[in-house]
Amino acid sequence: xxxxxxxxxxxxxxxxxxxxxxxxxxxxxxxxxxxxxxxxxxxxxxxxxxxxxxxxxxxxxxxxxxxxxxxxxxxxxxxxxxxxxxxxxxxxxxxxxxxxxxxxxxxxxxxxxxxxxxxxxxxxxxxxxxxxxxxxxxxxxxxxxxxxxxxxxxxxxxxxxxxxxxxxxxxxxxxxxxxxxxxxxxxxxxxxxxxxxxxxxxxxxxxxxxxxxxxxxxxxxxxxxxxxxxxxxxxxxxxxxxxxxxxxxxxxxxxxxxxxxxxxxxxxxxxxxxxxxxxxxxxxxxxxxxxxxxxxxxxxxxxxxxx
Amino acid sequence: xxxxxxxxxxxxxxxxxxxxxxxxxxxxxxxxxxxxxxxxxxxxxxxxxxxxxxxxxxxxxxxxxxxxxxxxxxxxxxxxxxxxxxxxxxxxxx
Lengths: 307, 94
Known about the structure:
The complex is a heterodimer. Chain A has helices spanning 13-26, 73-88, 93-101, 112-120, 172-183, 215-233, 242-245, 253-260, 285-305; strands at 31-38, 44-50, 60-65, 103-107, 188-196, 200-203, 238-241, 264-270. By secondary structure, chain A is an alpha/beta fold. The termini of chain A are far apart. Chain B has three helices and four strands; from the N terminus they run E-H-E-E-H-E-H.
């Protein structure tokens, strides 16, 4: 049962998978689950769909967590978001309106093999666990999307942490996500991906310093979302396009989604700014998720009201 | 829970001011194994940025010496990564 599930702990993949089953079974009118693919090591990629059932197709938001294996606060946030959605639907006006009028697809862990590896073998693992045509394992899934693939900020060396893979979408996990978004392109209005750390709210592009067509709008939405986030605990966020706000990086999921036509495409880099880095203590899961909820809900609400 | 331990391994924050400093970091990355936390790799390091690198225990004294000699601003963010790995599980429930 999800009654005993602890959202303020880091959970293993086995626990997260069981939780997905439970939360779907306990909330049949609001949550459904599908499998969008299988990982390199054979794990099922479960996708949760949140939203009141409707006879007509609703517009949707796609959100993923855990692209990079060692960024544990990211999957913790996706679980928190689902919990908040089911527990505040009917009482929180923003969430109720969102789930009545839109669907939110949540991929709680993108890089499942990598996440499991960080629990069992190496806490600092970042990439997938696929075997390249060399002695090195893994590809950086956030360099493997077909967006300026393997140019700036990505490496063609299989042993590098930012290895772009043998071709775009060479990673089965990336292809599964890309296929799902492509197949549902007409209804997906926003793409949100959750990373850590650095306290940033980024948007395209990262593979070029060129500005996107709706740059001003994306920047303003990001600033307002960050303002909402800051209002809770004073956590400071910086907003802007990836390439100029942090560094150029090709093959990212947010750039790819944007170029596919998803015009609201955001990347969160959650707490902190380096005191803990990837090792954010569990005691900070609650405040981090609480403040992030405010920003995600702001973006979702904006998208809902600006179709 | 992870079988790989990180005893004595350190997380450094470097603040390269110029291309010389950037070159030192890239050269270091070529000589020893460095895990880049921020940015994701040595190629992405630029002047006037913050660079967080995870260094093995066996290389930490070499890195400390090189950084001292370079005059590059730096600090140790995490002195013992294994202790930080363990401290991440600090919830009351556990």
